[in-house]
Amino acid sequence: MVHEHAERTLHTTQEKSSGEALIAFDGFCFAYDEEPTLRHITLRIDAGDSVVLMGDNGSGKSTLLKAVCGLIHPQQGSYRFDGAIVDETSMRDTIFSKRLHARVGFIFQDSDAQLFCASVVDEIAFGPRQMGLSDEEVARRVDDALALLGIEGLRMRAPWTLSGGEKKRVAIACVLSMNPDVYCFDEPLSGLDAKARDRLMGFLRQLKAAGKTLIIATHDQSLADEVADWFAYMGEYHGYENRPHVHINL
Fold first, then answer.
1. Which residue from 36, 107, 148, 160 puts its CA 20 to 30 A from 206's CA?
2. What is the Cα–Cα distance from 129 to 241, expressed in whole angstroms?
3. Backbone angles phi, psi at 63, to 5 degrees
4. Rounded to two decimals, what is the model's pTM?
């Protein structure tokens, strides 16, 4: 069973509960409409790792992130999070799925796909409320997330009125308020101007320094070089011979 998500200060991380990998894929296969997207993926990610997924469009990076978050399930092989099997059966258990989603956060490439409430404050509060936290704890987490992302002035704004960079920071704040152990980012710098990119890069460095587990799908080599402990290459190998890496051959 996935461990209970304890209430704790933002920017802290859990100790590893055992010697096994936090995230473990074994022969994981998935296809959309019978078109294979992930073929026999075997991958281990330890707590605190910062992993960058690289590869061409359509190589399966976004699909693998969805698998980490329990949004898609293996059609062959297995996926374990902290030792617990994550599949269609386990995710039908409401308690199990809530605990997984409390520990694994996903920031979509398209922020509009993630934002649906009437105000920024309601967006950020949504996750902690689903966790059943007290009103006082929800308010504290919202305030902390707003402050850490520098978006206090957006508190009462409607998400649809925001710029692309503002939406991205709100989407991150929504995940940050859950204080997950794992952050999954899908092309986090996509569509951002230079100022917004610098701000987000600084935030990623903060998360890494805090010991959070980062899994980032990107084509941006500067981002990859900045935050990666190691790379997982989806598809054909493209170099980086002197850097620690895993090569996933699809």
1. 160
2. 46
3. -65, -40
4. 0.83
